[in-house]
C-alpha cells in the first residue's frame, strides 16, 4: 500500500482522487490524504511530519517555489529553477523532484513542430508553474519571454531572477493593462494563473492581438477543461494544449518514480479528461 499526500495552499482533490482510483483499479493499492498549508515556518513542520508518516508527497499549488529552500543537496535542476512538486524517498533519503518539468517536456516535444523559435513567449504568472514552463520552453530553444501577472509588483523581481538562471535569454516585464497593446510577435502563450473570480488578466488576454500565425496556447487549468481562454484561442486558429493533458503527463512521470515503470498508465489521461468534464 502506497500512502501519499498532497500538501498545498490550494489542494487538488478532484485531480488526485482520479489518480488514486486509477491506480487502485490497476491493482496498485494506494491512498491519498490532503493537507492544506501556508508558506512560512509552519509549513516546514508540516512537511517534516509528512515525511515521517507518508511514503510519497506531492507539493501543490502555492508551495512549489519555496519547498526547495527547506532541503539540502537539491538536484541541480530543482535548485536552478527553484521549483519542485514531488518529495520521494530514494535510497532511504528524501529527494525533491519536478514531475511537471519532465511531463511538460513530453508535451512540448509533441507540439514542437509548430514552434517558431525566433518568436516570443508570453508567460502569465510568476509562480512555480511559470518557472517550469519557462525551463521547458527554454530547453526547446526559445529565448525571448514576456512576463505578466495579476500581481504586477512581482513581475520585475521575477524577470531579474530568471535572467540569472537563463543566461542570454531576454525577459520583459509586461503590465497587465499593456497586454492589449502588444505587437503580434508571440508564438506561444502560457497561462499559469487560475480561472477564478477577480483574475482580470484573463480578460486582457482574450484580444489575442499578440499571436503570430501557427501559435500555441498552454493553459494549466485542469477544470474546466475548455477554459474560455482556450476556446477563444482555438477560434482564431491557435493550437490549444489543455491543462488535463499536462497534469496527466506529470502524474505519469510521478507514478513511474513512486511505483516503478511497470505500472500501466496508458488509460489515465482519458480517465482524467472524463472526470474533469463532469459538473462539480
* Contiguous runs where pLDDT drops below 50 for at least 5 residues: none
State the shape: globular
DSSP summary, beta strand count: 11
Helix content: 25-40%
Neighbour order of strands in the largest sheet: 8-7-6-9-10-11
List descriptors.
280 residues, alpha/beta, five-stranded mixed β-sheet, 10 helices, 21% strand
Question: Would you give an account of this structure?
Answer:
With 280 residues, the chain is α/β, with parallel strands linked by helices. Helix content is 39%, strand content 21%. It has helices spanning 13-25, 41-53, 76-81, 99-111, 128-140, 155-165, 201-205, 228-235, 243-259, 268-276, and strands spanning 2-8, 30-36, 56-59, 86-90, 93-97, 120-124, 144-148, 170-173, 186-191, 211-219, 239-241. The strands form 2 sheets. A 6-stranded parallel beta sheet has the order 8-7-6-9-10-11, with helices on both faces. The chain has a 5-stranded mixed beta sheet with strand order 2-1-3-4-5, sandwiched between helices. Helix 1 (13-25) packs across helix 10 (268-276) and helix 4 crosses helix 9. It is globular and about 55 Å long. The two termini are 29 Å apart. The model has no long low-confidence stretch (mean pLDDT 94).
SSE blueprint and pairings:
Layout: E1 2-8, H1 13-25, E2 30-36, H2 41-53, E3 56-59, H3 76-81, E4 86-90, E5 93-97, H4 99-111, E6 120-124, H5 128-140, E7 144-148, H6 155-165, E8 170-173, E9 186-191, H7 201-205, E10 211-219, H8 228-235, E11 239-241, H9 243-259, H10 268-276
Helix pairs in contact: 1-10, 4-5, 4-9, 9-10
